[in-house]
Amino acid sequence: MAPPAPRSGDAVFANVERVNAELFTLTYGAIVRQLLTDLEEVGEVNKQLDQMGYNIGIRLIDEFLAKSNVSRCVDFKDTADVIAKVGFKMFLGVTATVSNWDAEGSSCSIILEDNPLVDFVELPDTCQGLYYCNILSGVVRGALEMVSMKTEVSWVRDMLHGDDAYELRVKLLKQVPEEYPYKDDE
Amino acid sequence: MAAIYSLFIINKSGGLIFYKDYGSSGRMDTNDSLRLASLWHSMHAISQQLSPTVGCNGIELLQADSFDLHCFQSLTGTKFFVVCEPGTQHMEPLLKIIYELYTDYVLKNPFYEMEMPIRCELFDLNLSQAILKDRVSLLGR
């Protein structure tokens, strides 16, 4: 039997290689700034950040699975918990909380009180529609897709827009069965 | 003495993305390695269906007269397997190490395209070190 999945990312966080938080924050800031210059429209930047996050997510999931020693999740609730407690801790160094489950248990909110990406950020008036951390939603979506969960991830609350926390809404659209035969026509 | 004969990595659709042989026994040409990879992919899938155990994740170990085959499948569907001398120990931890190397040196390489054959020098380098270390520890026992 597989050992029970660890429900805290502290041990993994201590073992993975880390970089200076400020370097990370400033690098991300530079990327967003460059995207704004290149794409000019805030909506396009949101889209691009999400796509970049997705591309990261589909690769990052394997590292997560290889190094965190979590076992297979039994349901989506379990998955959300692992993302918040282990995933965010391992890669961002912060722990998130999961709440606001809907009745079917297919959508929930991941709430971040602390977010290292925004340490030095103030949104100017011209960028009010910008989801500065949109890369994170892409990462979560990409990572879950690789373990056969199609999801929709969006921001509900954003401290840069004056809210009191970061709230990421994760909605499970479809669980693709892993068993053969795959339904090719779907 | 080569404890490990060869190493294969197959992507989630059954394509061989990495093959390496160690030592002379069990060496095969490109066609054979591709055939073996897709054959294993299918057998693994069939074993999952045929298994009487609920929640079976497919064959982990195949033992034959002249070799053992240890297989590890990640939750994302990539399979890693080694063919080795019968009775070789500690292949599961080695496969886990190889999985970690794959996440570090293949997936993090921005020029690696997902699901495509692996051509990453850093991966090769670190892989041979890991296998060598494994061999040294085997000899020491």
Automatic annotation (TrEMBL), chain A:
<comment type="similarity">
    <text>Belongs to the TRAPP small subunits family. BET3 subfamily.</text>
</comment>
<dbReference type="GO" id="GO:0005783">
    <property type="term" value="C:endoplasmic reticulum"/>
</dbReference>
<dbReference type="InterPro" id="IPR016721">
    <property type="entry name" value="Bet3"/>
</dbReference>
<keyword id="KW-0256">Endoplasmic reticulum</keyword>
<comment type="function">
    <text>May play a role in vesicular transport from endoplasmic reticulum to Golgi.</text>
</comment>
<keyword id="KW-0333">Golgi apparatus</keyword>
<protein>
    <recommendedName>
        <fullName>Trafficking protein particle complex subunit</fullName>
    </recommendedName>
</protein>
<keyword id="KW-0813">Transport</keyword>
<dbReference type="GO" id="GO:0005794">
    <property type="term" value="C:Golgi apparatus"/>
</dbReference>
<dbReference type="InterPro" id="IPR007194">
    <property type="entry name" value="TRAPP_component"/>
</dbReference>
<dbReference type="InterPro" id="IPR024096">
    <property type="entry name" value="NO_sig/Golgi_transp_ligand-bd"/>
</dbReference>
<dbReference type="Pfam" id="PF04051">
    <property type="entry name" value="TRAPP"/>
</dbReference>
<dbReference type="GO" id="GO:0048193">
    <property type="term" value="P:Golgi vesicle transport"/>
</dbReference>
<dbReference type="GO" id="GO:0030008">
    <property type="term" value="C:TRAPP complex"/>
</dbReference>
<keyword id="KW-0931">ER-Golgi transport</keyword>
<comment type="subunit">
    <text>Homodimer.</text>
</comment>
Automatic annotation (TrEMBL), chain B:
<keyword id="KW-0813">Transport</keyword>
<keyword id="KW-0256">Endoplasmic reticulum</keyword>
<dbReference type="InterPro" id="IPR007233">
    <property type="entry name" value="TRAPPC"/>
</dbReference>
<dbReference type="GO" id="GO:0006888">
    <property type="term" value="P:endoplasmic reticulum to Golgi vesicle-mediated transport"/>
</dbReference>
<comment type="similarity">
    <text>Belongs to the TRAPP small subunits family. TRAPPC4 subfamily.</text>
</comment>
<dbReference type="Pfam" id="PF04099">
    <property type="entry name" value="Sybindin"/>
</dbReference>
<comment type="subunit">
    <text>Part of the multisubunit transport protein particle (TRAPP) complex.</text>
</comment>
<dbReference type="GO" id="GO:0030008">
    <property type="term" value="C:TRAPP complex"/>
</dbReference>
<keyword id="KW-0333">Golgi apparatus</keyword>
<keyword id="KW-0931">ER-Golgi transport</keyword>
<dbReference type="GO" id="GO:0005794">
    <property type="term" value="C:Golgi apparatus"/>
</dbReference>
<dbReference type="GO" id="GO:0005783">
    <property type="term" value="C:endoplasmic reticulum"/>
</dbReference>
<protein>
    <recommendedName>
        <fullName>Trafficking protein particle complex subunit</fullName>
    </recommendedName>
</protein>
<dbReference type="InterPro" id="IPR011012">
    <property type="entry name" value="Longin-like_dom_sf"/>
</dbReference>
